[in-house]
């Protein structure tokens, strides 16, 4: 029997995933009745004092496992390059900025020299101004040219919210420059009547990679005057372009460069990120160009107090009688409530849309008990809201009308929300890069700030709150992306050929994998070679072949059965687990039951209901080895990396009581299987190693299964992935290896680079995995070590002590193999 652990959002193939229900109605821990008297107006405690207030009382004080103090830092000034237009410098001074920080001046110098550059300095370090000053100077220069359009700039942001926020900033800064700077947002929310004006007259166009891929590049003749004059391309928050999404964006940028060259332009790329490891290397892989790095942060910084917070154990029992901690969602709602009562401005980040809604509802209810007027000063912010709703929330938080937001990572990136006092992070966000991005939302006006990471009942979260050095003494992760992934490259070659016939000269731009792919695309009758170029052969749009977010397929529309009202959409990949018949679906604080799922028409019909349970999908998974690329000995065992095929089928769902997680029943489902060809890392052990680990046949499956769960939970510490990006299977006797084997695979066709990163960091990764299991205080396994929230086998069987012994013997073999035999 194979034990499986599946990733989310599998593109065009399989997609798992059941999400563990959020049991936010778990009662508050005993003795936890914080003082919630409204604060005196205008009081603003220091970060350390604010943390003391939140931790008041013996029950709460014990929840803080570590406090890190990042001291304030003085800034270092420089002077702007003398080539910057005086009007631009005057506008910057009018905004209250007399002198740039040293890193801002360096970025501007490189941009003026025509060098592509990445600025990788901390949050609130003025990265936007670093690239805006040379950009605005070029736009002013261009406005004096006879045609009146002159130079243009394209700004790319990963989210609509960030693009809209940056547009406001550009307009404010450039107001003294008059019509020489015409900034406008061009995305899916832009009214059609405005789009033609932007194409013809916009000089600073802000958009996202999705619109560039689907809207601008396929319609390049209509953008010809803009592209011909394109001088700068700004790529903000460039660290977010990782995995499959990053690989797609890398190819979109190559298509952009190709079209610009045809129009006679060679734009300079200006990239920015507050959290990037090896920024120049990552920027080069993303753009395909040499990029200079500016990473010496010369800006001042206020004090940051960063607390690690572990919710207490409750008296409840979960799956297999495991102890249950109070949820991070419930704990974060308490902290948001207390911060609001004290008049502190804060954001609580939560990983899911549902979690954001729940935290805001819980906080509003508790605030109403203290002061009814405070309930309206807290709200939720997540994707799926209407554009005008999102903008209104952003303005309200910016102005201070809202004191607190419960938000998904849509507010993680770069929005200039100055003056926040605190950030609460409900659950480790998956990478250190995201953690520091979220923590950096507070204190952006230079004042001190408080950040609190509230651990979920999860192996990685538990490990981190007890091993603070893994967060505070380590650099952020390297950005992982693979532009040569054939599943990524093939549709972009088609899109490029549809934009302009693809020549042999163009192939150098798209990489060496083109030579192997082009004959396959010809055989599939997607491309046809005529003389020296490949042409797109179909009537449909080539850009529609792929979804660059890696979600794949047509989204499933969630429709209210009685009214026909469209409530929202669910990614095609998640439909089998999220909106199967009988599933509980949450939307804007309301609960719905799914009555039917039509996969052919991509429609889920729902009706409003108030069930006292949540639902979790169960699935089965099989995996086969297609090709082993690399294999190294670990003692008698083997560590391998290569290509695999994964077959998954959702077969049933469980109904669980909301408060306790008690299973109320299981219902069978009849859904088709899905297959996925991807990349995986796997390890095997021999009979002799099992004997050395005292693993008998009765506990072998549980030991492998437990090690698989924990290793998936720990991988985000070593690669820029989330546990939902990856999956796993453990098999006591695998037919391809003929040995007990544990697989961890990328949840995206062709791979996303995560399994490869796991292979090259395997010793450190599995050592941390063993430590996380061994140090957990539970007896037989719990969600903090070996239980998984998305296990297709109901976390059965699992053997905690067997997993520790098994990993000990495996790692002993790795050490005996010596450095020359290690995977990287």
Automatic annotation (TrEMBL):
Recorded superkingdom: Bacteria
Keyword annotations from UniProtKB, A to Z: ATP-binding, Helicase, Hydrolase, Nucleotide-binding
Helicase ATP-binding domain location: 108-294
Region (Disordered): 25-49
An example molecular function term from Gene Ontology annotations: helicase activity
Any matching Pfam family: Helicase_C
SMART domains: DEXDc, HELICc
Protein name: DEAD/DEAH box helicase
